Amino acid sequence: MPAADDLFRPTAGAVETAPDASATAGQPKDDGKGGRKPTGRVRHDEKMTVYLSSEELMHIEQARLSLRGQHGLGVDRGRLVREAVALVLAEFEERGEDSALVRRLVQE
Questions:
Q1: Phi and psi dihedrals of 61, rounded to 5?
Q2: Which residue, 1, 6, 46, 105, has most beta carbons within 10 Å?
Q3: Is the pLDDT of residue 83 over 90?
Q4: Which residues are CB-contacts of 80 (< 8 A; sequence separation ≥ 6)?
């Protein structure tokens, strides 16, 4: 069942505000290689289905609730996942085989 944030969020004409400096601390910087940025709250034309374990979904939901409760950021699960993917892909573009993504996939 969707959360209240998912049901009552603006969708048409919503403008995403730029995060403040404290929200971006520790994130990889764009380095001119076409750094990836998540799309935020816009209508998305493409869809991808990803299957998760109940534990993975619980971690995502706990992160979403923590972002809301501790940081005042009301984000839905889709936005949280898009942000995480953008961070991982930016680090992969920057570091290649030394990236956390490659290291974790090699361990499997």
A1: -65, -40
A2: 6
A3: yes
A4: 60, 63, 64, 67
- The residue type found at 6 is D
Q: What is the mean pLDDT of residues 73-78?
A: 94
Which position has the higher pLDDT, 45 or 102? 102
Provide φ and ψ at 57, rounded to 5°: -65, -40
d(CA 75, CA 55): 20
pLDDT in tens, 21-40: 334 444 444 454 456 667 76
- Which ranges of 1-108 does DSSP label H, i.e. alpha helix? 4-7, 21-24, 54-71, 77-95, 100-107
At 19, the amino acid letter reads: P
Q: CA 108, CA 98: separation in Å to the nearest integer? A: 16
Q: For the chain, give me the number of helices (H) and strands (E)?
A: 5, 0
